[in-house]
Amino acid sequence: MNVAPGKNAVSTIPFDHARVDRLMEEAGIDVLLATSKHNTQYLLGGYRFIFFAAMDAIGHSRYLPIIVYERGGPDHAAYIGNRMEGAEHQNNPFWTPTFHAACWGTLDAANLAVEHLTKIGKGDARIGIEPAFLPSDAYTLIRKALPDAKLIDATDMLERMRAIKTDAELEKLRIASELITDSMLATIRWAREGTTKTEIIEQLRREETNRGAHFEYCLLTLGASHNRAGSPQAWKKGEVMSIDSGGNYHGYIGDLCRMGILGEPDAELEDLLAEVETVQQAAFSKVRAGTLGGDMISYAEGVLKASKVAPYTDFFAHGMGLITHEAPFLMTNHPVTYDGTYAKKPLEKNMVLSVETTMLHPTRGFIKLEDTLAVTETGYAMFGDRGRGWNRGGAS
């Protein structure tokens, strides 16, 4: 299926195309070839093909969606997708003036991208690609077919594109966080003495799914253990539970951590969680538009350094949105391998942060809080802001 170019592309573009054009110009990119699921979803205004939502492989190849977007030329934009996506277009037309629903693999998708680039006169342009999301066979085909083109890594440019969320994106992130929080608290109440980690994780999956979230993972500890993988380990009276879950709502991530206790927390546990909360609040106090990202990090780290739990406690913060770690990147290789490129840049309104303080106590176990904040002009808005103390197990 090949839909011919239309006349009103600019009026229907679902993103700030002037800002994207500016970012492309700064990166020296004439035309984009976006090939990752998250960036094609962003550029299509939230659409992701359900058939390949949980997998990519098919036959001898894989699904490779491609958005072709020319800087300053939205009338030349194209979406290259799977053959079955013609039906999606019939029900909810894509904004791109050209749409090819013709592919089953990487090479036919890459061929159509080359044909489109040539047709719009960009066969020798500076083409932005996603190296980590462009299969080698597709890359080789494009490189050979367009020998005069300059292929540029567009990863940073695309990350900057997604860093500032729209109100609609913030609402999806809020809903995702609320659904995950509600699911974790319900799971803690459901779990009882003798309930295993495997059973708890499965219950959380059901809770999230029943609420309309897409379950992705649960990192769970019980008792004094720091092991967060699923196992037959059973919850015992007086033990703590750390439940850290990631799920998404329409592709946008909810990622939070809450604490449970089977029984009543003793004074030491109350004190330990209060130490974690103190570090979290220190970080929160520095979150507002205009504050340097690194200043928020250094202030929270300073508060942690002065704490008695510092030897076995870690602080971390990162951006999040369509993926769990995205701009703003605030810390270098801690723990995920990337550069903290935003540490010396001011936080901006509608950026979204995950803030987490993790204690690996030598005898009481894994004690952690992880929260999601949207940056505002005067501070922040917190999503899923409840259950941040000790939540009692077996209460349902």
From TrEMBL:
<dbReference type="Pfam" id="PF00557">
    <property type="entry name" value="Peptidase_M24"/>
</dbReference>
<dbReference type="InterPro" id="IPR029149">
    <property type="entry name" value="Creatin/AminoP/Spt16_N"/>
</dbReference>
<feature type="domain" description="Creatinase N-terminal">
    <location>
        <begin position="18"/>
        <end position="164"/>
    </location>
</feature>
<keyword id="KW-0645">Protease</keyword>
<dbReference type="InterPro" id="IPR050659">
    <property type="entry name" value="Peptidase_M24B"/>
</dbReference>
<dbReference type="InterPro" id="IPR000587">
    <property type="entry name" value="Creatinase_N"/>
</dbReference>
<dbReference type="Pfam" id="PF01321">
    <property type="entry name" value="Creatinase_N"/>
</dbReference>
<keyword id="KW-0378">Hydrolase</keyword>
<keyword id="KW-0031">Aminopeptidase</keyword>
<feature type="domain" description="Peptidase M24">
    <location>
        <begin position="171"/>
        <end position="377"/>
    </location>
</feature>
<dbReference type="InterPro" id="IPR000994">
    <property type="entry name" value="Pept_M24"/>
</dbReference>
<dbReference type="InterPro" id="IPR036005">
    <property type="entry name" value="Creatinase/aminopeptidase-like"/>
</dbReference>
<protein>
    <submittedName>
        <fullName>Xaa-Pro aminopeptidase</fullName>
    </submittedName>
</protein>
<dbReference type="GO" id="GO:0004177">
    <property type="term" value="F:aminopeptidase activity"/>
</dbReference>
